[in-house]
Amino acid sequence: MAALSQLVDNVVVHTFELTGPQTRVGRHPDNDICIDELSVSSRHALIEAVVNSYLNDTVDYYINDRDSTNGTFINDVRIQDRQRLNSHDLVRIGWNLFRFVDEDESSLEKTAYILEE
User: Fold this and answer.
1) What is the spatial distance between Cα 108 and Cα 71, in angstroms, rounded to a whole number?
2) Any residues with CB less than 8 A from the CB of 96 and at least 6 apart, and which?
3) I want to staple 68 with a disulfide (CB 3.0 to 4.6 A). Which of 40, 41, 84, 86 is the partner?
4) How far is residue 72's CA from residue 49's CA, in Å, rounded to a whole number?
5) pLDDT per residue as tens, the chain (117 positions)
């Protein structure tokens, strides 16, 4: 199971499990993960769970910024296009910091992804 763990001063304050094929993140209450904070756009980002085409029973997670005002960052790099998430990546949405955790991620999955390129 994959999750986003919200961090404050490097301490987990809330964990959001990523259970569906898509998880919408933003300030508007109709999002799957609602962050009521001014630096977060109403429909800020979208996380997608996609079946890995090389490894059976493996799911890859991708994040897209949805033209937000303050951006979406992975490990302090602002993303422009769809970006794959790796377990333990730091994700910043507006001024809110999260750690992406995928307990099912394996080193074989990373190898398959490299071979694809």
Assistant:
1) 31
2) 6, 35, 37, 39, 40
3) 41
4) 18
5) 899 999 999 999 999 999 999 999 999 999 999 999 999 999 999 999 999 888 888 899 999 999 999 999 999 999 999 999 999 999 999 999 999 999 877 655 555 555 555
